[in-house]
Amino acid sequence: MTIQQANDYFASCPAEGFLSADQLRGYLPQEEGLRYIGISGTAGKTAVAALLSSMLKAAGFKTGCYHAGWGPMSQRVRIDGAPVEESLLCGAAEHQSRFAFEPLPRAAAELAAACTCFAQAGCSFAVVELPDAGLAPALPRMPVCAVTHIGPDESGRSLERLAHDAAAVLREGSICVTAPDQPKAALTEIIVAAGKTNCELVVPDAEDIKFLKAHRFASQIDYGGYEAPLAFLGRHAACNAAVAVELALALWRKGVEISDEAILAGLAQTENQSSIRVLRQRPLVILDACHTPQQAAALVRVLKVAKVEHMSAVVGLPGREGAEAFLTTLETGLLPGEEKGDKKAMPGMSDSVFDRVYFVVPAGVEPSLTRALAEAARYHFEAEFCPDLAQALEQARAAGGRGMVVCGREDLVLEAAQLLG
To answer: Which helix (H) or strand (E) holds 316?
Structure first.
């Protein structure tokens, strides 16, 4: 099997479907030396996983990291920050395709393959994103875990339900770190789950997060004395860093030798691929793989704090579910359920950052759906449908203004990075 065939195999696995943790356990490696760290939640999983993986690497541990996003699987399974060896991923894909009675649901298939690669590579730790935290009980050794920020997503589930589902990552004897500034409804569910599972819960103190002086579109934070530059922008990113630091400290309490120097190195060395990433400043070009209201609010807040306006946006959304809420938040900066009057308490949040929005079709999405989203967006912006990404980028560039933001599904954002150089 070639690497292209392996990537195609995982892409062809059904996005929907159910596999129990007991069933998944049969596809997972059982190496005693491999310890798992599960990261669940609706926002911040990728940043927390990347930061913690970098800290563990700096501490001298061979560390695997699985990113449950879009794009080729070969780019989302990494060991010590580098893409996994092709032979390992090809072997895992071939094994699954031969021995699975029927194709596994994609989330389970990818998780099983990533863990197999990490075990065969001799990793000490596997940091894995868990969009479906119900699979977490299949992971055999998990000294620590995390539930990142819970907020509205495209599924339409309540905050309570989202938190309840994410809290499936908790287990007896583990230490779970959750996000500071967690909504009360979500935090209540996580506290209840911690009590039921006898899992210690750590909640970072938001008041310990301080922003230090830095250049425009740069971030320098101090969390509890851990002072370092950060490649991720915004308060939400600083909260993710706090979660990663507390996970490292929890591992230290579990007997893992991870020094303060390794924690600081991990914070400073982690690269930002697609979360409010400034590609260039003149004209301003920002890439952000955001497609939920929560992520859109974080983007708008960063732009408002930087006093940026008259931007164009190139948007590629994965589907209709949650699109209206996303567009409303992209216009106003307010999450669903926040009152319009709240704008008065949020300096600069009264006007939209974006003058024009160009809608493009991500791979596998029906063009008619994107056309319908562009029509609906005209209630919020000057909106236009573009048949392909290159044309949308050219029109956004020609529109002038301060610059452009490319947002939406991650694979489209990463493609834009290549086109924009």
So the answer is: strand 311-316
Distance from the first to the final alpha carbon of the chain: 32
Do residues 68 and 130 lie in contact, with contact meaning Cβ atoms separated by under 8 Å? Answer: yes
Give 364: exposed, middle or buried? Use CB within 10 Å, 0-12, 13-18, 19+: exposed
Q: Residue 108 contacts by C-beta under 8 Å, 6 or more apart in sequence?
A: 19, 24, 27, 132, 135
Residues in the chain: 421
Residue 411, judged by CB atoms within 10 A of its CB (0-12, 13-18, 19+), counts as buried
Q: Which residues, 6+ apart, have CB-to-CB distance to 282 below 8 Å?
A: none
DSSP 8-state secondary structure symbol assigned to residue 43: B
For residue 33, what are the CA distances in angstroms to 46, 285, 338? Answer: 24, 44, 47
Pairing of strands 226-230, 77-79: unpaired
| Residue 34 vs residues 87, 102, 107, 334: alpha-carbon distances, Å | 20, 28, 20, 42
User: Is the Cβ–Cβ distance between 312 and 399 less than 8 Å?
Assistant: yes
CB atoms within 10 A of CB 399: 17
For 274, the token pair is 């697609």
| Residues 333, 310: Cα–Cα separation, whole Å | 15
Q: Which two tokens stand for residue 253?
A: 């309490």
Instruction: Give me the tens of pLDDT residue by residue for the chain, a chain 421 residues long.
Output: 899 999 999 999 998 888 888 888 888 888 888 999 999 999 999 999 999 999 999 999 999 999 998 889 999 999 999 999 999 999 999 999 888 778 889 999 999 999 999 999 999 999 999 999 999 999 999 999 999 999 887 777 899 999 999 999 999 999 999 999 899 999 999 999 999 999 999 999 999 999 998 888 889 999 999 999 999 888 999 999 999 999 999 999 999 999 999 999 999 999 888 789 999 998 999 999 998 888 999 999 999 988 999 999 999 998 888 889 899 999 999 887 775 554 444 444 447 899 999 999 998 889 999 999 999 999 889 999 998 999 999 999 999 889 999 999 999 999 999 999 8
Q: 403 CB contacts (<8 Å, ≥6 apart)?
A: 283, 284, 285, 286, 308, 311, 312
Beta strand 219-223 with 209-211: parallel, antiparallel or unpaired? antiparallel
Residues 47 and 59: beta-carbon distance below 8 Å: no
Nearest CA-CA partner of 65 in 136, 130, 12, 21: 130
